[in-house]
Amino acid sequence: MSHPSDSAAWKHFNTCHRNFAQDPHNVRLGLCTDGFAPFGTYGRNYSSWPIILTPYNLPPGMCMQKQYMFLTIVISGPNNSKRKLDVYLQPLVDELLDLWHNGYVIYDAHTSHQFHMHAALIWTIGDLPSYVMVSGWSTAGILGCPICMDDNPVFRLQYGKKVGYLGCHRQFLPRCHAFRRDVWSFIKGKVEKGTARGRLSGDLILQWVSRIPKVIDNPLSNSHNGYGESHKWTKKSILWDLSYWKDLLLQHNLDFPGQAGGREATRYLSDSEYRSTSLYILTKTPEAEPYFRFYCDWAKEHIGTSSTSIDHIIFEGYVDWFRDSTMNMNLDGVLPLLRAIASGMSYKVRTFKEYVINGWKFSTFDRSDGRASQRYGVAVQSNSNYGTSIEYFGVIEEILQVSYDLHYHMKVVLFRCR
Ligand SMILES: [Zn+2]
What we know:
The protein has 2 domains: 4-151 and 197-254, no CATH class; 265-417, no CATH class. The protein is built from 11 helices and 16 strands. It has helices spanning 8-16, 18-22, 85-101, 128-135, 178-181, 202-209, 271-283, 289-303, 310-328, 336-342, 365-368, and strands at residues 27-33, 49-55, 70-75, 104-108, 113-117, 119-126, 155-156, 163-164, 252-254, 265-268, 348-352, 354-357, 360-363, 377-383, 389-403, 411-417. Helix 7 (271-283) crosses helix 9 (310-328), helix 8 (289-303) crosses helix 9 (310-328) and helix 9 (310-328) crosses helix 10 (336-342). It starts with 7 loop residues before the first helix and ends with a strand. The model has no long low-confidence stretch (mean pLDDT 84). Zinc ion binds next to loops.
């Protein structure tokens, strides 16, 4: 799947609302929300909740890019808004209803015509806490699973009293799957022969939540008849006001971020790592290119008939030569960036299993292994000194963040690959 339009949910919506689907002007939107701490680590208990709409009528590379996201609401803290979210969402839902039923008159500059643009919210995206706030289904305790809902054969651990999901989801596996017969790794001695009921249809959920009051109708009560015994509804979400909400195959996408950045550690580079890292950064800095060309020319002249290769001379001598020549120059003659590099990096580096660079997330091989999204593959073009260019494909083994002793704010991120 390279674009949401490849998904079954998108196609299902097309079959339910053919008129809407026929006009490519019509816009489909996703609603994302996630709490964040505006004061960073120092104010962890203070959180804000932005509500962001993102249009999907864009090529895959442009969807979810910062410049195409619309920050529609910011709910200020200090606590997360929980059920109150629906109060803040009211004006947005009103506008979405207007966009769905009436549409807005828009000018199409390409055809020089006016047209009625309609829009639909096709799903929400968020982590588990956001899911609870938006959907109204609490995921805490027994009946917490958002798919199985009331058909949830979970149990509490005998001593810790924690809810155990061990084994109950084996019902989703194919009949012949080995895990169904595994009597050791899940619930001791239990072979799973059942079939999961699976996801309830939008119509059935609507029937169910229609018995639960909306927050706006009943702002104070969040415990409704049968809560925790037959259901976990804390409210009838305001999104059910959208007449097409029941037709969505996938109302909520769950985002499981895991640990941001993976587990971070520090280590020290070995001498040879230090040497090759310094050289790599230096040769990849465009501002230092004139120096590099000068050094290569000098090395070529010097090499004469000796058997040492230019690469060897560069590896052994360039970093030191660069440092000496930039440090000996008068201050105004050298760019501050080059001075920072010449001052030498620290042997101590930070290592990560995941890193986001220019909006792309990369992970190491061992972190990606077995996950649905594999982000460890990289390709680099290498220009040798002889003018040939070779493309290398690598697998990220380690993500290193290098800093500079004298310029600690300057950081360079490198991938160690195999
Ligand atoms: Zn489940």
